Amino acid sequence: MPTSDRSAVSRRRLLTGxxxxxxxxxxxxxxxxxGEEITPVSLDGERACDQCGMIIEDHPGxxxxxxxxxxxxxxxxxxxxxxxxxxxxxxxxAEDEGRDPLATFLTDYSRVDYETFTExxxxxxxxxxxxxxxxxxxxLTVVARSEVVxxxxxxxxxxxxxxxxxxFVDEYGGxxxxxxxxxxxxxxxx
Length: 190
Fold this sequence. Notes:
- The chain has about 190 residues and is an alpha+beta fold.
- The chain folds into two domains: about 1-30; about 55-190, no CATH class.
- About 30% of the residues lie in helices and about 20% in strands.
- The protein is built from four helices and eleven strands; from the N terminus they run αββαββββββββαβα.
- The strands form three sheets. Strands 2-1-3-6 form a four-stranded antiparallel β-sheet, covered by helices on one side.
- Strand 8 (about 150) and strand 9 form a beta hairpin.
- The protein starts with a helix and ends with a helix.
- Mean pLDDT is about 85; it is low at about 5-30.
- It comes from Halorubrum aidingense JCM 13560.
- This is NosL family protein.
């Protein structure tokens, strides 16, 4: 390749690289997803639900956590919840107050070896509070109106794997929906 052609290619590569770098930098300044680096925390011990006050580890079913940009619930920790319904209720109230949630996590029953048990007429799933048990709601599908209840009664049961959702619905009934599409009216319909 002649020298002039090589220098044109090098100059083009340099300008393309610089342009891409500037675009990435500007996107970051304009508020790219600031919550991407956030990871879940373990909710073990005597941690109380920020919505209802129940000790999270003592109750069955999915649990959740919400990480906020400012205004953490207490001492710089994320909001912590004993059920998916408490998680969503708190999330909706926080958004109504103008608070900025960066990341919301729920138990991902595709990631854990859960146990099913009954209490009276109720079918329940085990609770999992270790940080590895959580997934972002953007990666989850929840099943509403199934036979499985949680700490607060009727529950949204989250999964990241579509086959797990199908198997759960086949066994326990319910309606699958994207976790990030849940609205206040969904909770009220439970």
